[in-house]
Amino acid sequence: MGIRFVLMVNKQGQTRLAQYYEYLTLEERRALEGEIVRKCLARNEQQCSFVEHRNYKVVYRRYASLFFLVGVDNEENELAILEFIHLLVETMDRHFGNVCELDIMFHLEKAHFMLEEMVMNGCIVETSKSNILSPIQLMDKAS
Amino acid sequence: MNPFSSGTRLRDMIRAIRACKTAAEERAVVRKECASIRAAISENDQDYRHRNLAKLMFIHMLGYPTHFGQMECLKLIASPGFPEKRIGYLGLMLLLDERQEVLMLVTNSIKQDLNHTNQYIVGLALCALGNICSAEMARDLAPEVERLLQFRDPNIRKKAALCTIRIIRKVPDLAENFINPAAALLKEKHHGVLLTGVQLCADLSKVSTEALEYFKKKSIDGLVRFLKDLANSPYAPEYDISGITDPFLHIRLLRLLRVLGQGDADASDTMNDILAQVATKTESNKNAGNAILYECVATIMSIEDNGGLRVLAVNILGRFLSSRDNNIRYVALNMLMKAIALDSQAVQRHRVTILDCVKDSDASIRKRALELVYLLVNENNVKSLTKELIDYLEVSDPEFKGDLTAKICSIVEKFSPEKIWYIDQMLKVLSEAGNYVKDDVWHALIVVITNAPNLHGYSVRSLYKAVQTAGEQETLVRVAVWCIGEYGELLVSNAGMLDIEDPVTVTEADTVDVVETAIGRHASDLTTRAMCLIALLKLSSRFPSCSKRINDIVHHHKGSLELELQQRAIEFNSIIEKHEKIRSSLVERMPVLDEATFSGRRAGSVPAAVSTSQGPLPKIPNGIAKPTSAPLVDLLDLSSDDVPAPGLSGGDFLQDLLGVDVSPVSSQGTNPTQKSGTDVLLDLLSIGTPPAPSSSSPLDMLSSSQDNKSPVDLLGNLASPSPSEKPSSTAGISSMIDLLDDFGTSPSVPVAETNGPTYPAIVAFESNSLKVTFNFAKEPGSPQATLIEAQFMNKSPNIYTNFIFQAAVPKFLQLHLDPASSNTLPASGNGSITQKLQISNSQHGKKSLVMRVRINYKVNDKDVTEEGQINNFPRELLSSGP
């Protein structure tokens, strides 16, 4: 079913956003996040963007101080997920204007709304930035 | 208002958490917030429900429990306003999951929202349903979702499509309702709807063959045309990624074509052109283009063969493999693993590049490449590939050594062309990364060494050299110590030198040095030390000049805090000091370990037997009992000091002990029963050659020993010729009785009809459920023919029916099987089946007997098959007589 989870993590390894598309208990999540973040953060720029962990393949990409990590199953196209991460970041940039860790922290629900418009049940729903953002902008206008 | 529930703003809470310096501070802040949220919940505070849930989501993200907020989500969802619903649904997806009972309560709210007039609210409900719906919800809400697949707004249709995927995964029976609406989505123009519609069709095809056939028939042409339009489409700013229009849609389409083309030549044919076009025309200088190429290759590999396309695909992978971008190399390695099943020749061409990838600095690439190399190995390239891998083992990262070692060992075991090469490679691995080698691997090495009599000397000398330079590798030390114990004299005498060897000068003292160093090393664990003690015991007999020194080392360990070591040391010390006469026969070389038994056990569920308690004595191949050194030595210790009568040799003494167990003996010296019993024991003790038959009658022997050993009551008891007294033996010697009881059965069936020479009986096969004993006889005058009486015993509490015994022998043997006495085997050893076999050996005197057996039977109406190989036929059968 493609994407199993999306994580955003800062340089210190603190989780800033976590969305799972399968059920894990709280303890399992904490352990998984800890292990994956340790693995990914230890890697350097030249190394490839894929890390295998347990039965996941983690595709990750770093933007300034923020790491985007996407866990996928073995059937998924790793390069496409890499492109998806970039699209996610561009979308957030368009909304927040050069998105940073604090934007996500203080607007956690908005970040989730954007992600929700892009991924549902582990599948990509929409790839047009304006389509993704229009419901969010509408809501902003209303409030 | 409650002072606790006034609470802070969301923003302030996040600031407070950010400001925390330690985890403990953070916990304190979170605890306080949770307390105030709970208070607000219990007061049913309307105003801050929205804010509290937002806080809970943040707290949940940090990894704290938030179950108490679940009901709040439901309340928010039920409220009329969009912002409340929005946060309520988000909370629902984050804080709840499909396993919770609470979820059932939300079904009705979702149903209402799916029918709401506001399309954004419909969208929210669809999204939540798509993420968390359970099987019950799927059944309840499928009609609503089906209707929404035709909703006027495409943004709803796309969400309904993904929601459908969840529904048909939960309840595949519902799939057929969705085939038509899904096919309709493929005709859309909106990319989001197409993307999700294509995905839905692929999922429908997986759960329903009806859907698969439908799409094959109706949709392939449309999909191909559509992919062509997309690939050639002009610049579309909204979907453009580095010059390519919507690569995500490309990939989805290629994936659906893969599902439809698999195993269908016609369908594959239809898509050939477009695949070729995508494979050749797509720009490969950007990630997006490569993602499409990668997917295209995967599709070409999966659909029915078209030679030209496959070549194209393998070429793309070759290009990927030589890319400088590590991401591209990674996916190339990943895809080559799939390609190897289709065209291993083409993948072999990239062997050198792949080997380079094993040595990459990037762990992900290394791991993929290693998996791939493992698949690439065959009989022809095993030597060069193994050399490369072992060379790399020296310089690889410590964290990679475990994986690498396991793979090398597996390759070497699987493809080894000859034993000497196998031994050489294993020694290299053990010297380089012995600490990463698993137990079964070095056990296997020992089994191979014992099975190569011409390499014993070579192995022990190589191990001696290796251990000098790599003494810190635990498993290397273990194998070396074991071999030195067994073949130490070959090390000193340089016996059996191969041409390729450099002669070494090793004295007996040097040999003992190695073992002494190993036992004294702080890092050595219990198993290694226990093995060292055994080796020392063996050396003490082989190197009489070092006996004193060895005894000192053993003596030193009598004070060991480890029970196992202490016990061994005390026992061995006693053997060295008090039982000079039997020592040499006790520490004879181990019989050849049976490879079939070992590999069978390795494959089976029984864990490898060489644990600390068993020490380094692997199970003896014929499978009689499981002798550890301890019971044996107990047995000897019991006899204490001067028990053996002056005229009795050690072997006779054992015979004496055993004679007791055999039913009342006649006073004729050549009693076959007694003889066979002895040999079984000797075999058990790994004493190779049986002693010459005693000339005196056993009764005489017993009485004479009785005379001399008045202090030892226990033995007196035992030595009494009346079997009825046996049970009176005390618990102190129970292990010995157990040991002896095992033999009670086998010698009781002497092959007595013939007057010719007698042969020791063997346990030819033994498993948890079954025991097969062979008794032997020969016709006088025809030494090449052997008569075997097989006896089958059922060890399980269930009766076996339809019992059939089959045997096979190599060409130089001829086998004749007589009918069995019965085909029903009573439970728990209450009776047996016997069957006679005749073997004639055309190579009599040159080759020994060997046999494979298969036993079939039914137990509780289930068919059971057991198989084994017998190569522990008594050596005496080979010569004309014992």
UniProtKB/TrEMBL annotation, chain A:
GO cellular component, one term: cytoplasm
KW Plastid (keyword) present: no
Domain AP complex mu/sigma subunit, residue spans: 3-142
Protein family per UniProt: Belongs to the adaptor complexes small subunit family.
Compartments it resides in: Endomembrane system
Organism: Handroanthus impetiginosus
Alphabetically ordered keywords of this record: Membrane, Protein transport, Transport
Name this polypeptide is given: AP complex subunit sigma
Primary location: membrane
Statement: the UniProt record of this protein carries the keyword Lyase: no
GO terms (BP aspect): intracellular protein transport
From TrEMBL, chain B:
TM annotation in the entry: none
GO biological process: one example: vesicle-mediated transport
Topology within the bilayer: Peripheral membrane protein
Location of the region described as Disordered in the Swiss-Prot/TrEMBL record: 685-731
GO cellular-component term (any): AP-1 adaptor complex
Biased composition regions of type Low complexity, renumbered to the chain: 694-705
SUPFAM superfamilies: ARM repeat, Clathrin adaptor appendage domain
Biased amino acid composition, Polar residues: 719-731
Annotated Gene3D superfamilies: 2.60.40.1230, Leucine-rich Repeat Variant
Residue span(s) of domain GAE: 757-874
Keyword Membrane: yes
Function description: Subunit of clathrin-associated adaptor protein complex 1 that plays a role in protein sorting at the trans-Golgi network and early endosomes (TGN/EE). The AP complexes mediate both the recruitment of clathrin to membranes and the recognition of sorting signals within the cytosolic tails of transmembrane cargo molecules.
Family listed: Belongs to the adaptor complexes large subunit family.
Protein name: AP-1 complex subunit gamma
Lineage, opening ranks: Eukaryota, Viridiplantae, Streptophyta, Embryophyta, Tracheophyta
